[in-house]
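It would be a great kindness if you could assist me with a short task in structural biology. Thank you for your consideration; the sequence and its tokens are set out here.
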Amino acid sequence: MRSHPITGKQVPWEYLRPGHTCAISSASANMLFYRSFSTAIYDFSEDRGLVLFGGIRPGCWINMIAANGVLLFPEASSGCTCSFPLRCSLVLKHKPKRSQPWTVFIAHGAMSPVKHFAINLGAPADMKDDKGRVWFAYPNPKIEDLSNHYLNYGVKFDLHDETLLGMGYFCSDFKSTTIEGSEKPWLFTSGCIGLSRLEIPLIDDAWGEKPGVYTLRLGFNAPSGDRTDQRVFSIKLQGNTILKNLDIIKEAGGANKALIKEFKGINVENILSVELIPKDSNPTMSQAPIINFIEVLREDVAKISEISEPLSTITKTYAEALLKEAKTEFIKKNYTNSLDKYHIVLDAAPSVNLKQKALEGMAAIGSPDSLSRIAAYCRDTAPILWNYKEPKQELNNKAAEVLIAIAANTAKSDKQKAIKMFKNALANANEKTYKKAFESLKNLDVKLDDATDK
């Protein structure tokens, strides 16, 4: 197990082998070697992510051989029709003082509620810093079915970013660059010019996650050639102006100097919107806002609710008694008491059959208090996250029915949240529950194309 770099929750450590994978995996004490279309190397000792060595492919048998500190890589593709440019034998040796590598960090599971989210705008790939923080590249590359078995390879997210016409993301090599005021030049050699707005997903209220308080850090670096009063813009958070007329050159003292602006005590219920408003109403590229990175940290970490593992499994007899008591409380319309008992059975009952009965009772009540419980069974965590302790499919279907019942009750007071819940149900439903969610969305006047758009 490892801590998820965004939520801090414990998740299984996994690696994927998308692309052509005919070779055999091999390993040393601290590293894993395999084929993921090209050569793939994973360093366990630092857990920085997957390093892809393009241009050369392993053979169809074991030809990446760990040998007491070096990697022997004999040529094994000459007779293959795969068009790889490097067809030669290699010996690779560890270089202790080299620059940190760009990687693809793979961590599956829910990405909210956010505890720490570090985004390196425009970067070519992910990077783990010396303090163990993973900086995720954005925007994410779009992967086609033909070249990859998993469309969501790596950690994927959408900031719904908007840029000025003709402007966008940039990146340059950091290895020969010095950024005054920072030991991480790779955070300031990529970014976005002309960014006008983005939305950072921090909390998913459709899964019952509670509001939180966050600190936001924004990183800026003015490029060479900028001068004072040239690139001036204001910053809005959640629609409110929080900083007027920021001039990076003036505040940092010149170009290629790191400038970090920190804003604390930001209340967030769902997304955190960030807007950069240029002083000039029609700015050129040399006048438009520029930003390099975004970092978000939760202040009230202790308030992040998490369902802990039950200390022990309850007996079948006790679970059956709780189900009977829950039904009695339901008939009396004591729904809170009834729900508490159903939750205990779902969390700790010894059999799938008993848990299914608990889910049926939860569906009859349709309370948002059940959202955090059913998320483990019907929250979409594609491409892959298996709970090896549970035969999931039977429970997935019942949990989806609970979600639909909650959404139906929520629609009476909050249509938009209900729509999100119904769409969540579509993502992991069988034919029966899919039809229920689909019809419910139609009744809420949601276009059918939109309903299936994830």
Observations:
- The domain at 316-451 is CATH 1.25.40 (Serine Threonine Protein Phosphatase 5, Tetratricopeptide repeat).
- The chain is about 25% helix and 25% strand.
- Residues 450-454 have pLDDT under 50 and may be disordered.
